């Protein structure tokens, strides 16, 4: 096991009617920014439930933060925070709203410089943020229990992740009933995202970490079993709860401490979102299998273990590893994900050229063995 | 899955030479109480390593806290804290020292009343504590990442657990190399304790929690595989690291959120420690298999899953469940645990009589179905 440091101070309140605990979680005299995206939180009832619990609190609203949240929109919220002397941000919605909330919490109290440059590009350690709490309604990013945030810059056509020890939510409320009304596309995206998070942490080379490997396989087994259930019956509470908890555990650090991590699929996927506007989950459904295929020999041990434990495959290691990638593609197709660039009208030659040129220019090298360079990225995208 | 609330704010620093990070973790101007047990921390080098990192800090020492830490000894430390105006407690050693540190951290700032009565017997919610950090050197209790503390009252012959959201360590440093020199008895006790912690959380009835069940089985698989390795080669770093991380994960809440829990074995085991002085791990090696045997029908589903996944057993559920209990006994014996009361010179008739009388008097009822009453406890102990 590698040395590691771990801390996740977020309080999680999980289950039916957990929004009712909001009054005990919010600081008494805070001026709150109620921060959300489009109208879905008004359709699924969570907006009304939150408003009811905000009785007695001073609050202002900011709506309209988009999927793949934009820097430009975030800066409008920062202005509102300053104008209204907000001192607590309550994000209601999915990981995009929460990622944006984390960014504006840091940007609003940044002492000098441009927030995009200072927080994301220079990635300077942040020294303070406003506190953020959330009611998370989409099982996908794991943002509800980590200090990670992904922000896009519309004008520059860029999408990057940043993170900070200070960016963890103070609390996260998870009521799986609010996922009953998710469109199939978002349910599917969330399952693919969770699958990919685990693979980025698990599917590298072994440094003797059986506890963590078992945790990873438990999350994978759960989503492979429960994923089809939520698609078949969107109101299956138990399945929705298991999918949500799997998503949260998929990126709260529990599965990834002390192991070798990858993150090449996310690195390439973010470019597909930035250039062609693919949903995050859509980009991963395309890129992850291609990366696994490209690296199948060096990832054979972990792939084979997964294939044996999750898909009951038998045979020699490399053979099982290859068939495991096929099984992952089959699983993605079974939950109605699309796994080819052409499914999204994207020309693979154009993607391969543009993204490999970006990586060349930036000197980007990805993967746990630092061997996914511009050339490898081109090959991977040409196979998508 | 049941509704749950989870928060564990402890920062974990894990790995070789992690004690070197102590200066970055300790508050700059704090007066520190260096709190430890007997001489083992001087023999294994951790005392010297800690003293080196305390350079520049004001500190006083309190040594002599015993295994099954006593209230009476704790109160001596409380006096020292008050006399010396200590404002940070650094526990160095095993779970007993840390449990005691948590208790004195609460007792030292208790505003009124007797700490045993207020904190443990009346279990009033604590409103403040001194901060506690630790260098934990024994993989067993999981105390390094939870808010639980177990204290014994020598005069009254009692042993009870208490817990608080405020009792979590601020940080826990885990360097598995300090476990190389553990006596076999302590290594064995720690493995049994971890096994029992998981069983108390896992082996009840199913409320559809596949993520958590998989986490539990991962910890069990790890200790079944790595336990014999550390006994055969005490200086096997990887095995020691895996055993330690399994112990920490065994009781940090990750395996137990949203599930039905038991804790009957611990409830009975604490009495054996209080009356006959058995080590905590020793008491569990005796009681856990007996409780599982007594409840084999109602625990059959989870026992059988464990038997299939960990011990590769096959057959119908109840049959596999019964053979799983046998396998657990075999495993305990294989790591040199003793599983009969007579191994410790304790008369089972005496234990059954004394403990069932205590439970009758207190109205104690244990187990996930609240069916382990005084009578059941008597039967269980007569089978030990």
UniProtKB/TrEMBL annotation, chains A, B:
InterPro entries noted in UniProt: ADH_Fe/GldA (IPR001670), ADH_Fe_C (IPR056798), BDH-like (IPR044731)
Family designation: Belongs to the iron-containing alcohol dehydrogenase family.
Domain Alcohol dehydrogenase iron-type/glycerol dehydrogenase GldA: 9-176
Stretches assigned to the Fe-containing alcohol dehydrogenase-like C-terminal domain: 189-364
Gene Ontology cellular-component annotations: cytosol
Signal peptide: none
EC number: 1.1.1.-
Name the UniProt record assigns to this protein: Iron-containing alcohol dehydrogenase
Class of enzymatic activity (EC top level): oxidoreductase
UniProt GO MF annotations: alcohol dehydrogenase (NADP+) activity; butanol dehydrogenase (NAD+) activity; metal ion binding; methylglyoxal reductase (NADPH) (acetol producing) activity
Pfam families: ADH_Fe_C, Fe-ADH
This protein's UniProt keywords: Oxidoreductase
